[in-house]
Amino acid sequence: MAELRIGLIGIGAMGRHHARVLRELSGVDLVAIADPGGDPHGVAGALEVLPDVESLIAVGLDMAVVAIPTRFHEDAALKLAAAGVHTLVEKPIAQSVTEGRRMVDAFAERGLVGAVGHIERYNPALQELRRRIENGDLGDVYQIITRRQGPFPSRIADVGVGKDLGSHDIDLTAWVAQSTYKTIFAQTVHKSGREYEDMMLATGRLHNGVIVNHVVNWLSPMKERLTVVTGERGAFVADTSSGDLTFYANGTFPLEWESVSNFRGVSEGDVTRFSFPKREPLRAEHEAFRDAVLGKSSDVVTMEEGLRTLAVVEGVIESARTGQVVEF
Prior knowledge:
Elements: E1 4-9, H1 15-24, E2 28-34, E3 49-50, H2 53-58, E4 63-66, H3 73-82, E5 86-90, H4 97-109, E6 114-117, H5 124-134, E7 141-149, H6 161-177, E8 181-189, E9 199-206, E10 211-217, E11 224-231, E12 234-239, E13 244-250, E14 268-273, H7 281-293, H8 303-322, E15 326-327
Parallel strand pairs: 1-2, 1-4, 2-3, 4-5, 5-6, 7-10
Antiparallel strand pairs: 7-11, 8-9, 8-15, 9-10, 11-12, 12-13, 13-14
Family: Belongs to the Gfo/Idh/MocA family.
InterPro entries: Gfo/Idh/MocA-like_OxRdtase_C, Gfo/Idh/MocA-like_OxRdtase_N, Gfo/Idh/MocA_Oxidoreductases, NAD(P)-bd_dom_sf
GO molecular function: nucleotide binding
């Protein structure tokens, strides 16, 4: 079977990693690279660095990866859709829900795979967490809390911390809980002198009743990437920086004697740190995209899912502006 011809536009901080993984991925052949800014990281190898998406399309592609600044996502994606190219766009899907909707429709109308690079779904700690929740290890899920903070990344200039970092947590929360957002209330601050927010606190509820809370900022010298899921039998803590998953079990035992079976709280129980294979998330993401293009069963993040995540992020920004709860 012939390998799928894939092109990459954008070989900056994230694009360089896409280039490395695509070269190592079975079933695909990286045949073209484009970046109007050249090749700052020296990843093009023997490939010519093309100037734009049109020249990338002209090479003849089955698939493409878009890893350019968010404000250019829609233009590149619509041109790739018109050319019949299956496309994975880095998160967030677009700068606005309106742009994202046009992208979703363009790929759907042509029967093409449109995907979004919400890479945290492929983090081994979250993959294992999701598997164990589905297995019933936690019982009923009550609450999901995420903390994602660290130093300001000077390379991000066209979106705020909500769309850049917060979109990770909103997507992974909905995916782990297998439910969409019902409400969100948020606060944001602007401390770095930019037009976009650099700190965000958001709380909300999913349609299945799980309550959620997100702490996201670019103003901390301490890098943190944590997801805490609390439920009937204890709490899972996933550290996506290290790929570790730990379970803190409740120290109480279920009581069957009716007269004393009222809930009395929990105490500290056993703590278990799990051992499991830790595959590179970006490789797993590209395998899912490749399999989706081939028509195989795949857990690729669709553009429709990426659009729902962006809608929640815009709800965060709207709530912070108005001081009101936003409903979806």
